[in-house]
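Take a look at the protein record below and tell me what you see:
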Amino acid sequence: MADVIKVLVVDDHQVVRRGLRTFLEVQDDIEVVGEAADGAEGVARAEELRPDVVLMDVKMPVLDGVEALRRLRDLGNAARVLIVTSFTEQRTVVPALRAGAAGYVYKDVDPEALAGAIRSVHAGHILLQPEVAGALLSQEEAQSGLGRGGSLTEREREVLGLIADGRSNREIARALVLSEKTVKTHVSNILMKLDLADRTQAALWAVRHGVTD
């Protein structure tokens, strides 16, 4: 049981929270450690419980999911956030991804697919639908200098390619025979050189510019 993934459910509808909990109770490797009814409570509970993964709604009272994500990132909370939403519009999902979400699923997701998504983001992977990835790429092209990739070292390009493949820092370290600390340093340098905010943007940049295997 040492590898059980601790999950916090943040949604303003009790029926949804109970439904998500019911979906996950039958999974041996996933434990719902808490619930919250709005974004502010979600931030507080995430700080208290230190879950591995947070299932976060977008539209909530008091504090919405996007602002809750920003606060978690500002606090340095290491939880991976998976957006669980009923909204399909890019204008709803894209800001959440830019705020640091690891991906998103819809509230009518199949239980097994939800469990798989939780395992995937916990492993350091990024879950994006093609249409949303395209919207993020368009924004990045408009906002950042695309010629900055030339400033990356060969090792940084290798790390970036593995980020685009959805690898976690631990997996990258194993693949390149490096320490995790060294990988973290490379990731920080990549984000700084490309003027990107997080791994999601880095993965999208890499895919757009062919920095993949």
User: Anything to note?
Assistant: The CA atoms of residues 53 and 80 lie 5 Å apart. The chain is about 55% helix and 15% strand.
